[in-house]
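hiii so um. not sure if this is the right channel but i have a protein structure encoded as tokens and i wanna go backwards to a sequence. like what aa goes where. can anyone help
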């Protein structure tokens, strides 16, 4: 499995004709078509595929995911998605994970007491959230840090759409003087959990921007504008 990746991104060269070319990675899990439509509405040229060359050459790669952590990891490994993610990040090529597509970027997930190894791009454990009502399903606010690119122009208190029972309850990556620290956005449902991360070319959201109305559309436009 790939090791943890933490690195400051170099400036992007820009997209062809001003239109970002984005691949939504098809590995058998995720809201592929809803993500495709949302990205198209946000102005991207979108392809849904598992083709490695297309995924490597695109300006941006979106890794969706719904369901169980272990099932998503099985599909991702079978499609070679972990290697695509790792190779893109090694070349400073942007990746956006959504929902379980964010969770699999961490070291491991634990479901029903059974641990599953993740992609290991960030340290941390995806585990069941301690809350009276699960799944956490519906609209919730987030607390984005200053300097966020994803949440630029989005008013504090804006709500995004979540559907999950598991999440990252503790951010475990220590700050380093060698690289810019990741920007971590938090939300709360019973307890705080990580709602989004921005770490150079690697970004991710626990919520579904493609289901979050105008706020989600703005976030996707912000991400596309950074490619």
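sure thing!! here u go:
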């Amino acid at each position: 499995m790939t090791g943890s990746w933490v690195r400051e991104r170099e400036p992007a060269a820009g997209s062809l004709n001003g239109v970002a070319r984005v691949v939504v990675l098809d590995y058998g899990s995720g809201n592929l078509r809803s993500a495709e439509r949302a990205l198209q509405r946000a102005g991207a040229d979108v392809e849904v595929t598992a083709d490695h060359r297309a995924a490597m050459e695109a300006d941006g790669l979106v890794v969706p995911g719904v369901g169980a952590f272990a099932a998503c990891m099985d599909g991702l490994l079978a499609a070679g998605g972990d290697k695509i993610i790792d190779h893109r990040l090694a070349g400073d090529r942007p990746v956006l994970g959504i929902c379980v597509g964010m969770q699999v970027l961490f070291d491991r997930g634990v479901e029903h007491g059974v641990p599953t190894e993740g992609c290991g791009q960030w340290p941390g454990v995806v585990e069941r959230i301690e809350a009276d009502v699960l799944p956490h399903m519906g609209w919730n606010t987030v607390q984005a840090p200053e300097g966020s690119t994803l949440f630029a122009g989005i008013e504090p208190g804006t709500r995004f759409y979540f559907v999950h029972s598991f999440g990252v309850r503790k951010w475990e990556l220590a700050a380093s003087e060698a690289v810019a620290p990741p920007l971590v956005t938090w939300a709360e449902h019973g307890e705080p959990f990580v709602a989004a991360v921005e770490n150079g070319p690697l970004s991710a959201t626990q919520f579904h921007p493609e289901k979050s109305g105008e706020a989600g559309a703005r976030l996707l436009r912000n991400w596309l504008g950074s490619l």
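oh and Residues 20-225 form a domain with the Rossmann fold fold (CATH 3.40.50.880).
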